[in-house]
């Protein structure tokens, strides 16, 4: 293994296989640079087996930015050539509109969705300020590549993608030491966590430890949609084995090579995890994500009355469905075009993933995206703001009723069942305000310190933004 250290205004080279790769100067302030150490291990002539960050003072790049796990993934043939580190660093040390513009241009010029996904992860690691600026100002454009539909492919191939894991793995081997693992996590001021056990990832089934990709994608939406400081966010994957025979046979798979544990052994592991999490961060919001049906409902029933937790697949989906009054249509398997043709243009359509608008009877109609991201980030952030003890189902009724009232009749007739996702932070402020007021009035939470009676102002003030005066919105 070779090691190299990158400092401000340095110029270094590294061999990837037998091919030298030049890394150009990093143009950033000395106090921002500190030391960035990268270990590169060659697996062969044309592949990069791993890239791991050994030491990165990320606070110097982005105030209170989230830590990076030392766990890495093996390289793969996802790139047609070896990963060129210069493409990651080129120009991204500088902070400003020019660099933001070039980053967006690079993103748009990247063709394959999975390559866009990888580009965004690289950008988040090496220039988090620019990444989060784009995430929060171009949310609608980036969303399909940090979450559905691209995150599905990312999870299926997670173990072979050339990227760093961002979250925390907790496996059966950690039993008896889970609390210590939380205490050893680099960022201790965690307020929101998304956890999966990888058993039912989207519609793809059991992906085991590869399920980390879904937690990493989902947690990003708390920042993008509801302004939760990324330093306060933690994606978690519980590795309890997998019944996916293909993954178990793949030498690149990083998870436990054993069948999933079930029954009492599984329940005891989850109980230790929940107890350790509560002892570590008593007021943390925990979102259950993509657990198998056998466990999802019973875990929610068990922990909802005694923890600040919810299951987005159950409550978030029900909430957005209720808000859109589209339960029957969401259950049907058809495209927007098929629904429009069948109904002669009179259908109100919503889907989890985006569809392109259609011209029907001379008028452009827009399919609504019934995306849970309208709901769960705002509900979760409201719970954090009020330090809610629990999140009962009636909270989601309040959120659904509030969201349903944000679209005019004229917009609904044009197919806009929900406000444009480009306004998601504005939508989240109103949802947070309604939910927070309900939580306090119901005795579930308490008013934050200094509260002046204006919930919308309070919630807007709680939203995080990129802490860099040099980064301002640009028109591009």
Automatic annotation (TrEMBL):
According to UniProt, the name of this protein is Malic enzyme
Question: What Pfam family does this protein match (any one)?
Answer: Malic_M
Describe the location of the Malic enzyme NAD-binding domain by residue ranges.
314-440
Spell out the InterPro entries in the cross-references: Aminoacid_DH-like_N_sf, Malic_enzyme_CS, Malic_N_dom, Malic_N_dom_sf, Malic_NAD-bd, Malic_OxRdtase, NAD(P)-bd_dom_sf
Superkingdom of source: Eukaryota
Q: Does the keyword Transmembrane apply?
A: no
Keywords from the UniProt entry: Metal-binding, Oxidoreductase
Q: Which stretches make up the Malic enzyme N-terminal domain?
A: 124-304
Looking up Gene3D superfamilies in the UniProt record yields: Malic enzyme, N-terminal domain, NAD(P)-binding Rossmann-like Domain
Write down the PROSITE patterns for this protein, in alphabetical order.
Answer: MALIC_ENZYMES
Has the keyword Oxidoreductase been applied to this entry?
yes
